Amino acid sequence: MRITIIGTGNMGSAIARALSTTDHQIDVYDTVSEKAEELAAECGNIGTLPSIKGASGSDAVILAVKPQVLPGLYQVLREIETDLWISIAAGVPLSVLEDHLGTGNVVRFMPNIAAGAKKAVTAIAAGNGVPAEGRELAFEIAGTFGTSYFLPESLFPAFIGISGSGIAFIFEMMHYMALGGVRAGIPYPDALSIVRDTMMSAATIQKSSGRNAIDLETMVTSAAGTTIEGVKKLQDRNLGAAVMAAVDAAVDKSIELENKAKFGDR
Hints:
The protein contains 11 helices and 8 strands. With 266 residues, it is an alpha/beta fold. It has an 8-stranded mixed sheet with strand order 3-2-1-4-5-6-7-8, with helices on both faces. The radius of gyration is 21 Å and the shape is elongated.
């Protein structure tokens, strides 16, 4: 199959690199042709398009451009013939994309920033006009740069709260845990590495066991031990409330942006 990526910024480039390891024909286009050419030279098996209209005939076209760029592209995009559109533009709902692209064959991706490491977590929402083979292709594409979950579009704000923006909350937690190590005598780089590997080990245990996070926490929490002392401090300072409030804030902002895209200037 032929897959074209429009936009070679951080996310578009990460997706292109991941797809370049597959058997698909991959083409890229960017208004800054040098960026597309550098990416193609790096990967060796990616083609570049001199014009955005060259995307016509692709089995799928991935819109990897910023949301504010899309309005200036819709007119020319409507002239492109493709079986499937995939947009990673945050805050632009399917209804807006379908309206401006003139088709119901539209899928939304909401990846987090780990695509470059092929560890992104991506939410996928498919329009009602996307056939089964289109959904399968979208899932396959997302799988090349991490894990993915089909979700109703109405749950995208919640996904952003716990993954898209949520990954930043985890970085924040990593930083402060590392600072705790620094306070106890471990240099920051070493402390951060230990915290990183501890978080990865925790995620691996949960994924492999499938057990509830609280069940796993109680396995570590011995009676009158060190862990319960730390957990008590987290509860005393309302860590749970703070984390849930952070997720809520990201969810609310996401809803605000999507409503603006729906009901603002279209």
